[in-house]
Design brief:
The complex is a heterodimer of chains A (about 210) and B (about 240).
Chain A: H1 28-39, H2 49-53, H3 57-62, H4 65-79, H5 85-90, H6 109-113, E1 134-137, E2 156-167, E3 178-187, H7 188-192, E4 201-207, E5 211-213
Antiparallel strand pairs in A: 1-2, 1-5, 2-3, 3-4
Helix pairs in contact in A: 1-4
Chain B: H1 14-24, H2 43-56, H3 62-75, H4 78-90, H5 92-100, H6 102-107, E1 119-123, E2 128-133, H7 142-145, H8 155-163, H9 165-171, E3 181-186, E4 192-196, H10 208-214, H11 217-221
Parallel strand pairs in B: 1-4, 2-3
Helix pairs in contact in B: 4-5, 4-10, 8-9
The chains are: A alpha+beta (about 210), B mainly alpha (about 240).
């Protein structure tokens, strides 16, 4: 979706707030959000990122990073029927869960976090593009989650690598659509015009559906 | 951040729900516009409430969350990345393996985990400087760098790095000369990226361990260079 989260190329977003040797988090509750996010994989009923992206723009901009994830996590758990808003308000469970879900325990928590996921599919799928092909970002505006930043639309680049076969994130919730992901190089001037540096470029991995032959 | 666990997402009816959650975060004036807007506005209290409810329902154990926090703080992080970089500097065969398949090469150190699939290591050279960003969110190579610092996830860094990388780098204290090509890597899909910084001059006598101590997280994101401390080391 053309949401506020799709920020690449925007200006006027304030300060970066760079700190050398910045800490990983600034308050204990922040890493607790991270831990709850990690621990909720088996019962939140799907990835959180699409939910973060649905936070209304004005709210999204006002929230800190971990507030966004906390808001999305609660939202997802409410949608999944795991908790209710009243329960969070009261800080107390009002009713037991109908189905039993194996809890994350101290014994298995870290193992799960330290296991490298396997999202690449071994399925054989024909590749539409080859290395060095000229490709153009399609003029598409999906209403839901997508990994195609708007700055790549209608811009021409070169395929540098074939990353293999992955499920298209736009199709989450439907039958997964398996297709190749390509590393595409866009010249900075193609994206940003004459004032960009002639030598510079942006590289980004793109699902096949985001591209057309140029 | 990203998740590798695929699952179905029902988006229907969400907008209202998201707005409610967002409003519960504390917008003045609209907080009580609907029912159930009384969630604690302080995120610290909301996290605590959420944890209590999930623990009571038997979905998580607080001790398990402690283990996760400890894992994030102590078992993943830039010290892992620094070891990988130092090895690549002293061992050309390892460096080649790292550039060919980052995930397999980091596994030689026992490093693995969430956000570690398809790790792509990009090499800085005298003519190429690489910098990593995630414009859509916060994708970051957790096994080697841990959780991303706040500035990496800031709206401004995400927005500006693709359109004005040299300006961003300058602002962060790194001047890149006109002769050097700047490559921006927008990590949004399955791959995560790590910059292999240039080994600083005057470090021939250092051990792999001493070299690793020089490598900063920011150099592996590509917003800093690795500096030899030979000159500025003495008190």
């Amino acid at each position: 979706m053309n949401g506020i989260h799709d920020m690449g190329g925007m200006q006027g977003m304030g300060e970066i707030g760079y700190e050398e040797n910045a800490p990983m988090f600034h308050a204990d509750w922040e890493i607790r959000v991270q831990a709850l996010h990690a621990a909720s994989g088996s019962f939140r009923g799907g990835p959180l990122r699409p939910t973060v992206e649905q936070i209304p723009a004005a709210e999204y901009l006002r929230m800190s990073y971990y507030e966004r994830w906390l808001t999305a996590l609660i939202e997802r758990l409410v949608q999944a029927g795991v908790v209710t808003r009243e329960e969070i308000e009261q800080s107390r469970a009002a009713r037991a869960l109908e189905q039993t879900i194996a809890p994350v325990t101290p014994e298995n928590a870290a193992d799960w976090l330290l296991r490298t996921p396997q999202t690449e599919r071994q399925t054989q799928v024909a590749a539409r593009f080859a290395i060095d092909d000229r490709v153009r970002g399609r003029n598409i505006h999906p209403a839901g989650h997508t990994r195609m930043p708007r700055y790549t639309r209608l811009r021409t680049g070169n395929v540098e690598r074939d990353r293999g076969v992955f499920a298209l994130p736009d199709s989450e919730g439907d039958e997964p659509r398996l297709q190749h992901v390509y590393l595409v190089r866009f010249a900075a001037r193609e994206l940003w015009g004459e004032t960009a540096h002639a030598r510079d470029s942006v590289r980004i991995d793109m699902w096949e559906d985001y591209l057309e032959p140029a | 951040m990203d998740e590798s666990d695929a699952g179905s997402v029902d988006r229907r009816g969400f907008i209202k729900g998201a707005a409610a959650g967002a409003l519960a975060a504390g917008s003045p004036g609209v907080l009580h516009a609907q029912d159930h807007q009384d969630m604690p506005s302080d995120p610290a209290l909301r996290v605590k409430a959420l944890e209590s409810v999930l623990v009571e329902k038997g979905l998580v154990e607080s001790a398990a969350l402690d283990v996760l926090v400890d894992t994030f703080e102590n078992r993943v992080g830039p010290r892992n990345g620094a070891q990988v970089v130092a090895r690549a500097w002293v061992d050309p065969a390892y460096k080649q393996r790292l550039l060919d398949d980052g995930t397999a090469a980091m596994a030689e150190f026992g490093f693995s985990g969430w956000q570690g699939e398809k790790l792509t290591v990009v090499e800085n050279t005298p003519t190429v400087h690489n910098v990593i960003v995630c414009t859509l969110c916060s994708c970051y190579p957790w096994p080697l760098l841990g959780l991303a610092p706040t500035w990496y996830k800031s709206d401004a860094y995400r927005a500006r790095t693709v359109v004005d990388p040299r300006g961003v780098l300058r602002e962060l204290g790194l001047q890149v000369s006109d002769e050097i090509e700047v490559r921006v890597w927008d990590s949004n899909a399955a791959s995560r990226y790590l910059v292999l910084p240039e080994r600083p001059e005057g470090t021939d006598s250092l051990s792999e361990e001493q070299l690793a101590a020089l490598v900063s997280r920011d150099a592996m994101i590509g917003v800093a260079k690795v500096e030899s401390t030979v000159d500025g080391d003495a008190p």
